[in-house]
Specification:
Layout: H1 3-21, E1 29-43, E2 49-50, E3 60-61, E4 66-67, E5 73-81, E6 86-94, E7 105-116, E8 119-127, H2 150-153, E9 160-172, E10 175-192, E11 195-213, E12 216-230, H3 232-245, H4 252-265, E13 270-281, E14 286-297, E15 304-313, E16 318-329, H5 345-365, E17 369-381, E18 384-394, E19 404-405, E20 417-427
Antiparallel strand pairs: 1-4, 1-5, 1-20, 2-3, 2-19, 5-6, 6-7, 7-8, 8-9, 9-10, 10-11, 11-12, 12-13, 13-14, 14-15, 15-16, 16-17, 17-18, 18-20
Helix pairs in contact: 3-4, 3-5
């Protein structure tokens, strides 16, 4: 679904509202709901910005010590029920984008057909079900923390997909099972220290199974996609290796080595997979939950493992909580590159620069970090909460972590980073 089609869908839905308000058919209804967060975060690190997603071009730290845009967002959702079988939903979210604006984006825009009471099909822009909290990861009021653990949730930059999904629900005794299959494509623009990169996920297919038994639930998920990742740095480096591979004046040995690098590391139509398991136990007065995920991409983009565990207690209107999360790289951080022995000095220098660029990309993509968080939530009025959270972030000695950007020369990866966040969440 391209932007024009989405705009047309949103426009059509809005144009129908006045008509629906006078509709006599009781089966047709429209509901407008919303959610949002107003937050501010302070970082003790002034040589890099901390951000909560890969879409943000800046955050708390170097650009500004106190950041009002890190967690602040507003979402509006329109639910249109046409009859007992057919319904539609449009969700718009305004948050900090890659281009530094808060221009609203269409997060969801789809029609749903209820085939049977247990089987439904949705088509359009739907949530990409990569995680346990995929459907409401951006609704702060629905989550215990100020933000979902970025060590897990920032592994995949996409949160929605243009395509279809099929949902089937099966109840056997006290065990409720939900099965979901999703297919389509997605894309995103990601800011970096070297400009804006683009990532496309085509032929994406995802499968999820959720099992619920009393206060306990277990989710299993798997997804695969063809991945393209382009940007100034990878295009320049891999363009240089392609020129070496296609240069008839160079010996075949070096041309072959350059082609092997392209085959192994260039992110063009490469297979990416993502698997995860999540567990949640929530009897009401307390909760504990965690997720364990693994990402693999056949390119310079690193394979990663992420996980978190969190727990808390609900004491009246207060919910103190603690969380530990970690992301680590599973890929190699260097490559031998193309040999330069026996080549003219100017050619050897050019190839040496390409080898250096490749190793810099491998090293920078091998991000790793861990985070310990303590916080408390206070539900001080209906549908509104306030959260206070402290994070101790460490980037594990890597060049910089997954969620740091605008890294300065004086940044020391051994420094621990303290984050202090205050957020007010609301739904209506």
């Amino acid at each position: 679904m391209n932007r024009n089609l989405i705009a047309a869908a949103v426009g059509s839905a809005l144009l129908m509202l006045p008509l629906l308000s006078h509709a006599e058919d009781s089966s047709t209804s429209f509901k407008l709901r919303g959610f949002g967060t107003v937050g501010v975060t302070h970082s003790s690190q002034d040589q890099a910005d901390y951000r909560n997603s890969l879409f943000q071009p800046s955050g708390a730290g170097h650009t500004r010590a106190w950041d009002l845009g890190l967690d602040t967002r507003l979402g509006l959702q329109g639910d249109l029920t046409l009859n007992d079988k057919l319904s539609a939903v449009v969700q718009l979210i305004s948050e900090r984008n890659y281009d530094k604006t808060f221009k609203p984006n269409v997060e969801w825009a789809n029609f749903k057909y209820q085939v049977t009471p247990d089987l439904s099909v949705r088509g359009g822009r739907v949530a990409l079900p990569m995680f346990m909290l995929s459907e409401y990861r951006k609704v702060g009021y629905a989550n215990p923390w100020v933000r979902t653990p970025v060590e897990v949730y920032a592994q995949i930059p996409f949160s929605s997909l243009n395509g279809i999904d099929v949902n089937y629900r099966l109840n056997v005794g006290d065990l409720a099972t939900s099965l979901q299959a999703t297919a389509g494509k997605t894309q995103a623009k990601l800011p970096s220290d070297r400009g804006v990169n683009e990532v496309d996920g085509s032929n994406t297919a995802a499968f999820n199974a959720l099992f619920e038994y009393g206060p306990a639930s277990v989710r299993l998920g798997y997804a695969r996609s063809k991945v393209d990742y382009t940007g100034t740095a990878p295009d320049t480096i891999f363009g240089g290796f392609r020129a070496v591979a296609n240069n008839p004046l160079l010996p075949g040995l070096y041309r072959g080595q350059a082609q092997e690098i392209l085959d192994q590391y260039e992110a063009h139509d490469k297979l990416g997979t993502f698997a995860g398991i999540g567990v949640m136990i929530d009897p009401g007065s307390w909760f504990v939950q965690g997720e364990y995920t693994k990402r693999k991409v056949d390119s310079f983009l690193s394979d990663t493992t992420g996980y978190y565990v969190t727990g808390g207690a609900r004491i009246g209107k207060f919910t103190p909580y603690a969380s530990y999360s970690r992301l680590k790289a599973d890929s190699e951080t260097s490559a031998q590159g193309v040999g330069t022995a026996g080549l003219p000095a100017s050619v050897a220098a050019t190839i040496g620069a390409l080898n250096g660029g490749l190793n810099a990309m491998l090293s920078n993509a091998a991000y790793a970090q861990k985070d310990v968080a303590l916080g408390v939530r206070y539900d001080f009025m209906k549908n509104v909460d306030v959260k206070l959270q402290w994070d101790r972030l460490k980037v594990d000695g890597a060049p910089y972590g997954n969620t740091l950007i605008n890294v300065q020369q004086g940044f020391n990866s051994n420094d621990k980073i303290d984050l202090f966040s205050l957020a007010v969440d609301f739904v209506f």
